[in-house]
Amino acid sequence: MSIRDLASRLRIAADGLPPGPVPLAALAEAHGGAWQASLLVLLAAPCLLPIPGIGTVLSLGLALLGMALWLAPHRGLPARLAQLHLPREGAVRGLALLAGFYDRIHLVTRPRLGAMAGPSTRWWLGPMTLLMALLIFLPIPFGNLLPAMSLMLAGVALAARDGLLMLAALTTGAGALASSTALLLLGWQAGAALLGLSA
């Protein structure tokens, strides 16, 4: 299924939702096999915004998703999450926003380097998601931007089967790790100097 087909599928699903609260299982089913990719995008995107506390909350969801990708990549939505319900209006809006996003992003994506973005990649994408979730969780100034961007790129790469985009996600993730480590070391050295602990 192409990313444009996924966008069409989400629009049809949004129009066909029954009245009343919508279980997450129904939303996952609407995505077909791409629910993990879409969840990466949905959880990572708000972390790009400078909203205090949002990264702390969403990083926990990203960590759970990372564990699912790592330990049970071929299973469906975990039972506890599947039973959660969203208001129908919120579910329709979420599906429509994702469909619009996929419609726009398809212009720069296409299936390529399939080995880098297929199902077999999820054994290392899980640990990567966990690591990026940890970086988002840490209180590093502007530290959410690169790890969140890395996970968004990875989600789109999975949905579009775009291995080149997955390489971009990995590169961005490596940059996030390097910059966060440098900032933490600088913070440690500055704190040690202020406390008179430096040699």
Describe the structure in your own words.
- The protein is mainly alpha-helical and 199 residues long.
- The protein has one domain.
- It is built from 9 helices and 2 strands, in the order αβααααβαααα.
- The chain has a two-stranded antiparallel sheet with strand order 1-2.
- The protein starts with a helix and ends in a 5-residue tail after the last helix.
How many extended strands? 2
Instruction: Determine the number of helices (DSSP H or I, runs of at least 4 residues).
Output: 9
End-to-end distance: 59 Å
The number of domains = 1
Strand content: under 5%
Structural class: mainly alpha
InterPro entries: ExoD
Transmembrane segments: 39-72, 123-143, 164-188
Keywords: Membrane, Transmembrane, Transmembrane helix
Protein name: Exopolysaccharide biosynthesis protein
Key features of this structure:
mainly alpha, 67% helix, transmembrane helix, ExoD, Exopolysaccharide biosynthesis protein
Summarize the structure.
The protein has 199 residues and is mostly helical.
